[in-house]
Predict the structure of Dienelactone hydrolase.
Amino acid sequence: MSVYILSDFMDTYDKITISIPLENVELKGDMALPANAHALVVFAHGSGSSRLSPRNQLVATYLNSIGLGTLLFDLLTYEEDKNYSTRFDINLLADRLLKATLWVEGQNWGKNVQIGYFGASTGAAAALVAASKLSQVLAVVSRGGRPDLAFSALPKVKAATLLIVGSLDSQVLQLNKQAYNQLSTEKKLEVVAGASHLFEEEGTMDQVCLLAGNWFEKHLQPIPLLND
């Protein structure tokens, strides 16, 4: 297992591929910590996707540009991802996300890091379940998410939660409205006009980036990543 220190990332936005050992599996991840990064946003991708999701990569690049670190990792191994039911095992996905977060906090560069989650589709449900169990997760952003799949966990979420849904994604929008009512933490529902489920329409992902960036900047306050 490779060990990284903050100085490895101080002068670059380039991604570094890492391996996250979790019990009997090792998951691949792409991490970037810009100079003076004060927080790390961990991504949870949707079913059938991976850390290479172009939309999540776009959001991550934007977050890096405003000084936030990012970690995108595969929630499932290649073999696990072949199993359709495993892709929708929210408890398994949430457990992987939770353990990856604890792994981050166990690294020298991650001991004092502020943690946020960005989840898409089923990954948003996994993010909310994990956040309901980890008080150190301070902010969650869901893009086209399925928070309804985390329904029983929603009242336990303490992290400030932003739900972003496309106006054309009518069924998912209704599910998000139902989930929104179950959240008892600071919360907001943003509807992006003219956007479908995948936010493929021109300019819609730009809005997602801005909304997510503003939310994380508000709720992940700057602190040093390492003690002096």
